[in-house]
Design a protein that fits this description.
The structure is a single chain. The chain is an alpha/beta fold. The protein has 13 helices and 12 strands. It has helices at 14-28, 44-61, 85-89, 105-112, 159-172, 183-190, 217-223, 247-258, 294-303, 318-325, 356-368, 373-384, 386-403, and strands spanning 2-7, 32-37, 92-95, 118-122, 176-180, 199-202, 231-239, 264-271, 284-287, 306-309, 329-333, 349-351. The strands form 2 sheets. The chain has a 6-stranded parallel β-sheet with strand order 2-1-3-4-5-6, sandwiched between helices. It has a 6-stranded parallel β-sheet with strand order 9-8-7-10-11-12, sandwiched between helices. β3, α4 and β4 (118-122) form a beta-alpha-beta unit. The longest helix has 18 residues, at 44-61.
Length: 404
Amino acid sequence: MRILLLTSSNSVGGAAIACGRLMKALQSQNIDVCLLSGESLGNKTSKRFRFVWERISIFIRNGLSRKNLFKVSIANTGYDVTALDCFQDADIIHLHWIQHGFISMNILDKILHCGKPVVWTLHDMWPFTGICHYAFSCRNYCSGCGSCIYLKSNCRRDVSAKIFDRKLSEYSDADLHFVSVSNWLARKAAESPLLTGSQLSVIPNTISLQEFRLIEKTQAQLSLNLSESKQYIVFGASYIDNYQKGFDLLVSALDLLSAKADNICLLLFGSVKDISLLDKIPVDYIYYGAIDDNEKLSLIYSAANVTVSSSYYETFGQTLIESLACGCIPVSFGNSGQTDIIRHKENGYLAEYLSCESLAAGISWALEQKPDKTKLREDVLSRFGYEVVAKQYIDIYNKCLNKK
């Protein structure tokens, strides 16, 4: 079988990383797979135009307000991938995160009705809402959207409702199989009329234990020029100041901890738009910037005592499995996709949702543990390793082809 993976980016963001790892996992099982990203299509000017045009369209619909400009996508522009040889040659089309000017609603319609089975991995909520990536407390996606909280809209038939209806029409007769990366996201998806009657499976993201190594703690600290007298906490994201990542909640939890301990140091990695944000950190910290080197990440995780994810929502939580693969205990809120990874007080800590006190208590608990790092790593392999995840997707691919 020939599989074509479609994703907006092959380098930026959790979905892009997850898609790239899945490609390697499938290749490890001798599957003929090709990855096509929006970054590889067209020249720099055309890519920039598609991205900017969608944002301008949202800006206008939002009463010329920049607020929430990147919390929604209306998919009004994109690239016709159906004309490409790699699309024509594929037996199965596998969609991932396809926004920001990569796949328009028009092109999505062509993909879903091209005569090939389509698998769509859910990395956020956009495939089953009108236009938003995360609905947070809004429940409008359960009844067709409209009056969108991310737009200055009191209209029941606004653009979110219209795109919701269009998705409903496009999905209705498509040969389409959805895959959620967590049970939490699958439960959310099942609430939407867009997925009523659809095939929906749950398969986690994958990780290579060859790329994320378990390094002896003292050796890792020495390699990073870290002091052995400190206790290290890791926090990382593609964009640290992305509101969803809950950096403000982490700062509040660290403020509580700093009153009790003066030997804590925060290890930060990821991009940040406003570097002054880091001035709010109440403990010592080291900022490594954006890192695309898994060996460097392995050193950071291995040198640390605990990895924290303070996100308001996580569809999965890739830093958590990276951390576990390197023998570092994860702490996170217990409200969303992280619960598929962390077993409370067994391989990590699940704090009460949005409670900075509980998050601080979880970090304190983790700092006191002396985990069996090899056991943590073996557990990751058994649940999220290349072979385990790839075989689940291959099973779905085979079922799609046999059905066809």
